[in-house]
Design brief:
The complex is a heterodimer of chains A (327) and B (289).
Chain A: H1 3-31, H2 36-41, H3 43-47, H4 51-61, H5 67-79, E1 85-86, E2 91-92, H6 93-128, H7 133-146, H8 150-164, H9 182-219, H10 223-230, H11 235-246, H12 248-272, H13 278-288, H14 291-319, H15 321-325
Antiparallel strand pairs in A: 1-2
Helix pairs in contact in A: 1-14, 6-7, 6-9, 6-12, 6-14, 7-9, 8-9, 8-12, 9-12, 10-11, 12-13, 12-14, 13-14
Chain B: H1 5-11, H2 13-30, H3 32-35, H4 66-102, H5 104-119, H6 122-133, H7 137-148, H8 150-164, H9 167-174, H10 179-216, H11 226-234, H12 246-271
Classes of the chains: A mainly alpha (327), B mainly alpha (289).
């Protein structure tokens, strides 16, 4: 298969996946027994609705028309960026999500950076000292922790540092009504971020670490490492400049594979810490059966995951010429 | 290829720990009625009582015995894990082997479907569908199986393709063996180690996802589930009850999951003796939910 064709092939996969999610969003509420409007908007919303609003919504979704016009109304709505109206928050779904998004981005972004860099450094050190006590201790510990479900790691940290020791806040992203500005505000944000971030990093660390360590072990057997040693490179230079750099490539690919886990993990962690991001919003929407909001959030998460994977796919091809020619 | 897989797993320290833990949870699940004095849904008359001789882990906010809910929760988790593992591995093997043998449009259709399904995290589809359906145990098992097979199918297909290159398979085909015979007699035996690894992985993901969905509150409310117990208990962290309510339940879930990942590591190690101590983790798309 030529390189161009495989790029197009993987783009087609992402497009197919996206279409599948859109179809599910369209079909599910209409498959439910009873009034489709009720399934689209949820029972609670209908109670608050006036007959005029109901008529307007039926018109909007073309619910009195055949399904082909309904599909057309749905697609054209999506193209206008209209995700619907959240009855629980009494606002546009897109606006509600945008309000929560920054917190999730802070959390997942910093977790991605921290877990990746920490995992790479630990993995390189550990692989370099293969079989030593540091190596064996790290392997056992991280395999154990990465087996834990993310939300329980969050709960344990919350119970230890928040509930028992009382040194970390129990919920939220800032201290409400404190009116802090500048440095104090920043420190407050970091104080609230610490525990959710630590839980996410702990869960994510294992995969990066193991992959780097194992690649490192293999790379260290290569002959160019022997050459580097022979020409008198320092230990540090061999470890990082020669072996380390060449162990990075698989880690980058694996980052793309880890992103979905990172994002869905963040959803659960946010719920544990009541961190006001998209995950907590999803939990609220699920409890309130606010279906437009549920659909909007899951759509956003899917698009984020697909875009990230697609980006890593393309990046990987650039980084490693072998991939372009292989296949 | 034909190695003493189970023996290798049991000799491995990771594998031994994993099987011991899993065995413990299984015994707890099987003996649930004998080990607990109360049915899991019974209102005992005491609310949020601390551990006592009658209630080893106290009672929860609606007066149910936590110890017995913990035991019955093990039943739900293991049932979901085992059922999904069997169904999804079977689908993986069927799709994987037949696409490799038939090729053509049939293969392209399924592999395209596999690639597209692998692009979306299954937990997202599950949350979306569960938000509407509030699935009961059976529906949950079927949904999880339907989403869980693609990674395994790809692995089975690759393995079958390489097996088809072997001479004894061309010999069988020359003697006029049909595709069913080839799959059953020549391919399946060599796929056994992979099938075992897929089963363990699928069980782990299914147990994790069931707990996650229940933790989000989108599964059938009458199901006794560790995830749901944790969701309830998390609202009472300001009281001391988390010590015997939230922590034991979370530990039970975590140790079950850890036991399966340890088994998975041991299996991978036994299948490929070149690897030491859990290589290739995070290397396959199907390794985690």
């Amino acid at each position: 298969m030529s390189a161009k064709r495989s790029v197009r092939g993987s783009l087609a996969n992402y497009l197919l996946a996206l279409i599948a999610i859109f179809s599910l969003n369209f079909v599910l509420p209409r498959m439910m027994p009873g009034d489709p409007l009720q399934a689209i908007y949820g029972q609670e919303a209908l109670v608050a609705m006036t007959p005029q609003m109901e008529a307007a919504l039926i018109q909007k979704f073309s619910l009195d028309q055949p399904w082909s016009s309904q599909l057309y109304a749905y697609i054209s709505g999506l193209f206008e960026g209209d995700l619907g109206y959240s009855y629980y928050f009494r606002d546009q779904v897109s606006a509600v999500i945008l309000g929560a998004l920054p917190w999730t981005l802070i959390l997942t972004g910093s977790a991605l950076i921290l877990a990746t860099s920490l995992g790479i450094v630990l993995g390189m050190e550990s692989g370099y000292r293969r079989g030593g006590s540091l190596d064996r201790g790290l392997i056992a510990g991280l395999i154990f922790i990465s087996g834990f479900p993310d939300f329980f790691v969050g709960i344990v940290l919350l119970l230890i540092f928040g509930v028992s020791l009382g040194i970390a806040p129990l919920y939220g992203s800032i201290t409400p009504y404190s009116g802090e500005t500048g440095l104090a505000y920043l420190l407050d944000i970091l104080h609230h971020l610490a525990l959710p971030l630590a839980s996410l990093v702990l869960v994510q660390l294992g995969a990066v670490y193991l992959l780097t360590r194992n690649t490192m072990v293999v790379v260290l057997k290569e002959r160019f490492v022997l050459t580097a040693r022979a020409k008198g490179c320092t230990d540090r230079a061999v470890r990082y400049r020669h072996a380390g750099r060449n162990s990075l490539l698989p880690v980058i690919t694996a980052t793309g594979i880890r992103l979905p886990q990172l994002i869905t993990g963040a959803l659960f962690i946010e719920i544990v810490f009541s961190y006001p991001g998209v995950g907590l919003l999803l939990s609220t929407a699920l409890d309130a059966r606010d279906y437009p909001l549920i659909q909007g959030i899951l759509l956003l998460v899917t698009v984020a995951v697909l875009t990230a994977n697609c980006g890593v796919d393309l990046l990987y091809r650039r980084l490693d010429p072998r991939v372009r020619h292989a296949r | 290829m034909h190695v003493d897989l189970l023996g290798a797993v049991l000799r491995d320290p990771l594998g031994m720990t994993g099987s011991a833990l899993l065995g413990l949870v299984t015994v707890m699940a099987i003996l649930a009625p004998a080990l607990s004095g109360y049915p899991p849904d019974l209102y005992t008359g005491q609310i949020l009582s601390p551990p006592s001789a009658w209630h080893p882990l106290g009672t929860d906010s609606v007066g149910q015995d936590i110890w017995s809910r913990l035991l019955w929760g093990a039943r739900t988790s293991l049932l979901v894990g085992a059922a999904v593992a069997l169904i999804s591995t079977s689908i993986s093997v069927i799709i994987g082997t037949t696409t490799a043998i038939f090729g053509g449009l049939y293969e392209r259709f399924w592999m395209r479907a596999v690639d597209a399904m692998l692009a979306i995290p299954p937990i997202i589809v599950m949350i979306l569908v569960a938000a509407y359906l509030r699935p009961n145990l059976l529906v949950l098992i079927l949904l999880l199986s339907a989403l869980s097979w693609p990674g395994g199918a790809r692995i089975c297909r690759a393995q079958t393709l390489s097996l088809l290159e072997r001479t004894h398979l061309s010999a069988a085909a020359t003697f006029g063996a049909g595709w069913r015979h080839i799959i059953r007699r020549h391919i399946l035996p060599d796929l056994t180690p992979i099938m075992l690894a897929l089963t363990v992985g699928a069980a782990r993901r299914a147990i994790f996802m069931e707990a996650g969905l229940s933790f989000l509150g989108v599964s059938d409310p009458t199901m006794v589930s560790w995830g749901k117990i944790m969701q309830q208990a998390l609202q009472f962290t300001y009281l001391d009850v988390w010590r015997w309510w939230l922590v034991p339940t979370g530990l039970a879930l975590s140790l079950t999951l850890v036991s399966l990942s340890l088994l998975g590591f041991a299996l991978e190690g036994a299948m490929d003796p070149r690897l030491d101590g859990g290589q290739r983790h995070g290397d396959t798309r199907s390794s985690h939910a």
